[in-house]
Design brief:
single chain, 272 residues, alpha/beta, TIM Barrel, seven-stranded parallel sheet, 7 helices, 30% helix
Length: 272
Amino acid sequence: MPITADCHLHSSFSGDSDTPMEEMVLQGIAQGLTTLCFTEHNDFDYPEYPDLPKDYFLLNTDSYLYDLARLKEKYAGQIQLLFGVELGLQPESMRKNAVYAKSYDFDFVIGSTHICRGKDPYYPGFFEGLGTREAIQAYFEDTLENIRKFSNFDVYGHLDYVVRYAPELDRDYSYGLYRDILDEILKLLLDKGKGIELNTGGLKKGMREFHPCTDALKRYRELGGEIVTVGSDSHDADNIAAHFERAADVLKVCGFRYYCVFEKRSPEYHKL
């Protein structure tokens, strides 16, 4: 396997996972991976939904770090475990995120857009009253604004996350339809020295392509982008490193020769 580091993982410390971290570590070892980076959710000001308890996506970071440190010691020499977080970004939460990101010595910080115009695209209500094109455009506009206002992250996560939950998934979606706004996003990330991730999680939902789509990855590389991490976005042990062989092939087709793993907020380049 050319990619041996999964850098987007959620254990039971994330609200939407009930998988113990140790179970995921053991699976990573069994698969022959060299590195797992846990990136537990922390979403300030996540909107209230009737099916979710209050503060569902607020992370108990101290408990998370304690358990990770215990497992790092227990499995030292078998696998590298890294301390990451996925920050849910939205304009109302920038100050909270800025303070939080400085409060811990993370190895890796993913910035992500989970909320657009006060709603999570995970819920069908996001698309109601909006055509799919308009909803996707709005999502990218909010993502651009998030990147303009916040800089303390290393890569932007699942850049076209919104299409994972679109009525037709990514069947009516392409880079070309949103070229102008996506180019603005990619250029701003490059201006800020930030990377992107190849996220394989959408395939589990029935998508045809990874996040972001292949043409967006190609465009990022054409613009000079080199920092790309790879993550399964797995919330269970079964999907760790899912589709990583295909991910390596896609990256090579897009012109990448390396993928990155962040340690102490600094990228290390690994040959594909």
